[in-house]
Amino acid sequence: MGAPKHQHFIPKSFLKQFATKAEEGRYLVDTLMRGSDEIKTLTTTQVCVQKNIYTFPPETPGDRFSLEKRYASEVDDIYPSVYNLLIDTELTSLSKEQKRSVLNTILSLYFRTPFFLNDENEKLDKSFDGFNDRLNSGDDIIEYIDEWNEAHVINMENIEEIRAALKVKNKLFFLDNHLEQWKRFVDYKMECGIEVMEVPAEVPLISSDNPVLILGPDSKPNPHNIFDQHNIIEIALDRKHYLVIYPNAVSEGERLELRRGKRDKRFAAGVNLRTEETSDGRILGYPGDVKAHFESQKALGAHTEENIKDFKNIRDKATGLAELFIIAKKTGSMFSKESIAKAKEIKDSGIMDNDDAFKKLMGTYSAMGIKL
C-alpha cells in the first residue's frame, strides 16, 4: 500500500450500505450539509474524507501512514463480513471472536471521527484569536500554559508558530489516545447485550458523518463520559437495520446472544432526527432517503390525534426508562430495592409491553426470583 493521503474517517465499506451502485463501480449517496438546503448526490469516495487525518507529522519516526493502514486491514476490510453477520436473521448468537469483531468495527466508527480533534483545535483557535486581539490592542507579550503544562511567551512574531505547534501536539494526542480508548472500550462492552432492530421501508434510516450515538440515561448524547455504565450505543447499519448496544448497568455477565426485534415508522423517524441532530455537519442516505427523512418529520410531527397519542407513548417510555437508569445509577445497581420498585411501576403501566429489551430485563428479574 502506498501513501494514502486522502483518508476516510467513515469507511467506504460502511457508506456503501446507504448507497446505490452506479456505472464504473461507483456508489452514490444523497448528502446534505448543515446550513444548506441543497441535497447533493455524491460518490462514497467524496464524503467523510479528510486529507492526512491519520497521518503522523513528518518528524515522527517510522511509517507515518501506519494508522490508516491499520484501519484499512483491521476495520475497513472486515466490515462487510461483520455487516453480513448482523443482518443475518438466522443468527441469534455470536462467538466471543465474532462479538469482539462486531464491537471492534462498530466502535471504531466513533473513535476515529475527527470530532474530538476538530473540537480541540476550535478551542485553541478561539483562545489564540483572543490573544491576537490583545496583542493588536497594545499588549507586548502574553504568558500562556498549554494543556501539557508547558509555558509559552506569546508575542506578535511567534503567535502563529506557537498555534501551529500546539495543533501538531493536539493531533499527536488524538492519534495516540483514541487508539487506547478504542481498545479499552471494546473490552468494556464485551459484557453488554446487542440487538439489531428492523424498521419498515416506509421510513428508511439515514446516517451521518458521526454515525455512532453514545447516549446517557436521559437519552441525550454523552460523548465526554463514554464509560458511564448507563450509556446506550446506537447506529443505523443500513436503510432498515438499527443496532443497539445496551448499557453495562443492565448486563448479565458476558452476553453472546444477538437479539432481534422490529420497530415501527415512528421509531425510525425518531432515530433519524437524532442522527441529524448529532451529526458533525453532514447527513447522508440512499438516493431519495434524505428528502424522505424531512418529509417523514413533517408528516409524523403534524398535530393529528394519532401522532399526539404516539408521541405521548414515546415520551412516557423514554421518561420511564430514563428515571429507571437514574435510580440505578444513584443506588449502584439495577437490582436495588428502588430500581426494582421503579421497574415494577413501568411494568404495571403497560407502556413497555411490546419492548423486547424491557422484556429481557423482566426475564432477568424473574430468573433471580424477583417477582414484579
UniProtKB/TrEMBL annotation:
Pfam families: DUF4238 (PF14022). It comes from the Bacteria. This is DUF4238 domain-containing protein. It comes from Chitinophaga niabensis.
